[in-house]
Amino acid sequence: MSTRYLGSTDVVAFALPAHGLAGAWDALVQSAQSGQILILDVTFVERTASGIERLSGRDIVSAGGDAVIGAQSGILSDGDLALATASLPVGGRAVVVLKETLTFAPVIDAFERDGAQFIAEIPVFHEDLAEELKEDHA
Q1: Where are the domains of the chain?
Q2: Contact between residue 111 and residue 1 where contact means Cβ atoms under 8 Å apart
Q3: Pick from 64, 66, 47: nearest CA to 55
Q4: Which of 10, 71, 76, 9 is nearest to 45 (CA)?
Q5: Per residue in 29-55, pLDDT tens?
Q6: Spatial separation of the C-alpha atoms in residues 138 and 84, rounded to whole Å
Q7: What is the C-alpha to C-alpha distance for residues 57 and 60, in angstroms, rounded to an integer?
Q8: Residues 64-89: pLDDT tens digits?
Q9: End-to-end CA distance of the chain
Q10: CB of 99 within 8 A of CB of 12?
Q11: What would you measure as the largest C-alpha separation in the chain, in angstroms?
């Protein structure tokens, strides 16, 4: 698999329900283990009256979630966390995941093995794409 090119990298945040999660942690770990994504950071937060407070996650992740807890690297800054959780109400808890999508890496490798040279990857924002599709179908 190509190690010279980064896949698309995104910050994804989920407001967590008070009752906990059943299979979400397993799905996250399975996505990483299968090579679909590379988890660069996982940060648990709670919105307080004074802002965002980082949490250990041990009281949030169910048994067997050590792989999720182990993915905490500290890459996400306080500013990243504040931006990603801006809509979180006071008292709300969230998990913020910094992940790289690796699903296209085997295709890049195959093109390069056949002599092609990787020259660009340009991000397309969902909002822009949705707008273009709406205009094309109007």
Answers
A1: 9-105
A2: no
A3: 47
A4: 76
A5: 999 999 899 999 999 999 999 999 999
A6: 32
A7: 5
A8: 567 787 788 999 999 999 999 999 99
A9: 41
A10: yes
A11: 57
- Give the type of residue at 31: S
Sequence-ordered alpha helix ranges (H) in the chain: 24-33, 66-70, 78-84, 105-113, 126-136
Write 71-74 long-range contacts (CB < 8 A, 24+): 71/32, 71/39, 71/41, 71/42, 72/41, 72/42, 72/43, 73/40, 73/41, 74/41, 74/43
86-135 pLDDT, tens digit per residue, is: 999 999 999 999 999 998 888 988 999 999 998 888 877 888 788 888 87
Task: Please give the C-alpha separations between residue 60 and each of 64, 68, 118, in angstroms, as whole numbers.
Answer: 12, 11, 41
Q: How far apart are CA 103 and CA 115, in angstroms?
A: 20
What's the sign of the alpha-carbon dihedral 106, 112, 116, 119? positive
